Amino acid sequence: MEELLVKNLEPAGESVENIKSTTHCHASIIPAWYEKHMQPMMDFARKLNPNPFNQPSDISDYISLHQNDYLRLGNHPEVVEARKNANEKVRNEAFLSSIFGNNSDECEQFRQNIKKCLNAGDVLLTTSGWAANVGLLEAITPLFTPIYLDKHAHPSLFDGAKLSLGKRIVVNHNDTDDLIERVKVNGPGIVVIDAVYSTDGAICELEQYLEICEEFDCVLILDEAHSFGIFGNGGGLAVERSLENRVHFRTVSLNKALGGHGGLIAGNNEMMKLVKASCRSVIFSSATSSVSAAGHNAALDILVKDNQRAERCLNNASIMREKFASANIDTGNSQCQIISIAFKNEQDSCTFYQKMRSKNILTSVFLYPATPKGTALVRFSVHSELKIEEINKTVESAAETLSEMDLLNKTVVSNQLNS
User: Fold this and answer.
1) What is the pLDDT of residue 218?
2) What is the pTM of this model?
3) Rounded to an integer, what is the distance from CA 270 to the centroid of its chain?
């Protein structure tokens, strides 16, 4: 067991011997029952060769397709300058929950600006997209109420369902017919979907889901983490389709399009009063810092004024999908900036990742629990500043790599991961 701990804890540049000297006492007191509990996952992690989660810190020499900064605003000069100015301002921040007030001027300004962008009645800022989803579901779900979760909904939404008092019911991916059948059996509840799914890049049929919710008296939660900033002049999918006033709650992760840290919950004024009064992930967390909020404000201002960034991002993704198709590489359900190749087993995805990395292309590997056990995805996160020669190199390298692995035309179609 100690050797397993050492192998997984060893940081770059530090010897196993040094790790042993600092971890020996901890490893030796692990109870036998817990060691037995840990063993399967440790064995699984040890067999992955290489470990795909150890991305390089310096990515200047790589084609970066592993980040969520789709509009490349995280290090935009105006955003950096806004953070710097906020950091240099002398102030007395309370560093307590936003529920108790004392939000900085930057936080309140951002809250008002993002509320306008989303065309929302009210907005509650959270420390992350995860905190928004978990806190929202826990706060609004009555005892034993059905929570209808799309099978590919973000894991944070499943975590929120676990922590709530509701009854979790998993619905087939993007399958409104399956949702109708389950609602008929289990009754009104809370329907939970992503606007854009982070694994396969599929876009939900939002109007159909709204019609179902309205017919069967259900509440709709729409996770706009990967659609905010990309659609609707930045406001997201609901805004683009002029449906925002019919969606009960929207959640957003701010580290995608805005390239920062944090999240939010948006809804109408009355429903948001309930959330503010009972959202534990906000009540028991510190408010967004003034520095982060200043960066958010600057990024949002750029995003709204320069919608060509989103257009370039989606156009780059369209070109890449077409080139993948021409190379006989199936990218499944992708309709946006998220493009994935599915694999029948975890090791193939890790091998593909490593071979692509050796060609200076960084991707993201999705394994269980992000995918069903025994399957995996390699995701390409397309961004607005991607050059055509980088797209060409990526597709050519992927085709060459799959051919080397004898997997070209043998990759699993993404929607088969539902089974």
Assistant:
1) 98
2) 0.89
3) 28
